[in-house]
Amino acid sequence: MTIIPRIKAFVAEFHIMKRACALVRELSPGYLEFNLIKSLLDATVPFIAIYVAALIIDELVGDKNLNVLLVYVTLSVGGTAFFTIITLFLTKKIDVLNAMFIIRIKKYLNDKKYSMDYAMHENPKYTELHAKIVEVMFLTNGGMSSVTKLLSDICHHLISLTIATGILIVSSLDTSTVDGSFSWVSILFFILTLAVIVISVFFSARNSKIVGEKEYNLTQNSSTNKYLDYYHYHYMEDDQAGKDIHLFNQRKLIIGEVLSKGRLPWMKVLNGRYSLHQKYFGMNVLISTFVGGYAYIYVGLRALAGHITLGSVIKSYASITILIFNINELFIALSQVKSNNRYLRSFFEFIDATSEQQSDKQLRIKNCETWEVVFHNVSFRYPNSDDYVIKNVSMKITSNRRVAIVGMNGSGKTTVIKLLCGLYQPDEGCITLNGKDIRDYDNEEYLKLFNVVFQDFQLLSLPIGENIAASRDYDDDKVWKSLEVAGIDDYVRGLPHKLKQPIYKYVHAYGINLSGGEEQKMAIARAHYKNAPFVILDEPTAALDPVAEFDIYNRFNEMIDNKAAVFISHRLSSCKFCDTIYVFDHGVLIQKGCHEKLCKDTAGKYYELWNAQAQYYS
């Protein structure tokens, strides 16, 4: 590599580290600064101790002045006590700021994850990138977690090198002997010392680079975190999982999975890193040992020749030892920075992932009495797929109209709703709201137009009232009305804490677990509370029997008033009171019309579906 690419590479490494440091300072103010101050003290204090010790020894073998010795001893003891107190204070402060940083970096990462475009949120590229970032940060303490430590280490080593080099230069270039005579031996030994240091630098740089590359490759090939995360934090935390583990004797299976795909691969990574350090940094230790032996000879010969005092022997030897140690450690730290910057690039790639929904031309949504969403020849396929899930769909949803979207599982019904809500963007065609492309509207405002209950909804481990209102502040009467519409108000009134009763036991010990049907009724009540102009029920009653489902749809239909309502299901209980029914089959809109019209088409798909279920609704 020529000099210019090397400079460019260095600048790139510097900029990414600079950006990471700026984020650390933003999330935990003072964290980086206190670490750097501690590094300065950690690097400086040993030299102060060495210098004072040298003064004491020279005084003991020299004039033996008791007053001077008392001053030196006082400086030594007092300085040690002072710096110990300062170091303890800095350590406690850094521990607090580190805890704050860990909490805030997790929040920062999660906030970014959930503010991303929905399509990107489901894209395997970004889900895997997020998983790798989390693994590196919280399982190996790499990525953003190690930025402050690495920078502090580098500062520590540079300061130590600077001071040690200064002491050696002053000591070696003082070519006069103790008795004042001139000696060329000092210059010769100084040149030899430089040569030894250069050799040490060469091997340290080479070995650190090799270890950095191999260590990064080891970690990159590990996918252990997703297995450990799934079993420890998802499956094992699920109450239903506890039943399944006992009923199906899954204990050995789970332990085997965790060991074979989680812990054992991770131990392989750790052992690999340990072997690398032994192999390559062992050579550094040998070189350091050789240099240490040379330092003894160098300093000893100078002392025997009368070139330096006994105190200077201590200063010179300690300085050479510290110099060599910090050269090795500096190159290790620099190699770690280079490896860690790869993780930082992945981190910032995830952070910088832009949402296609964000645009400078976003329109504000004005309140209207009548709303109309129209699909214009819409086709869509999921990322990294060649197959269309939806093909050439044209349909209309307007205020004061009930629409049913029906079809067998996998026919594209839920995808249509995700397109309607702007969670995905069409690959072909467009979707308009009151005549304007929905991509031109502010996405957050557009989403406020929809009350949606998806079949894969999620309730929070919060009180029922907060769950229904999606807010800490809510109207009790309005919540009770929504619960009544969903047919679960009597159940909630019978609970000990009623609207303040927490759901689930993840957070509250007195939380309650709900059945699948009760959860779905809660989700329907939550959708009713929002009171948006579009109401969408995407198979939210799948856990209910057909009669209960029909009852809920009837009550919900009565409460919709002049809103636009969309009912999605492969069960057809909602279709009888809908104005328009859209029938999908394998992503294609094959029929549309009212219930009576479609039932007359005895060769059609709707007639087939209805007759298969008619016994439940007669």
UniProtKB/TrEMBL annotation:
Residues 373-611 form the ABC transporter domain. It is a multi-pass membrane protein. One of its GO terms (cellular component) is plasma membrane. It holds the Pfam family ABC_tran. Signal peptide: none annotated. Keywords: ATP-binding, Membrane, Nucleotide-binding, Transmembrane, Transmembrane helix. The chain crosses the membrane at residues 40-57, 69-90, 154-173, 185-205, 280-297, 317-337. The keyword Phosphoprotein does not apply. GO terms for molecular function: ATP binding; ATP hydrolysis activity; ATPase-coupled lipid transmembrane transporter activity. CDD domains: ABCC_MRP_Like. SUPFAM superfamilies: ABC transporter transmembrane region, P-loop containing nucleoside triphosphate hydrolases. It is found in: Cell membrane. The keyword Transport does not apply. InterPro entries: AAA+_ATPase, ABC1_TM_sf, ABC_transporter-like_ATP-bd, P-loop_NTPase, Type_1_exporter. Its main location: membrane. This is ATP-binding cassette subfamily B protein. It comes from Aureibacillus halotolerans.
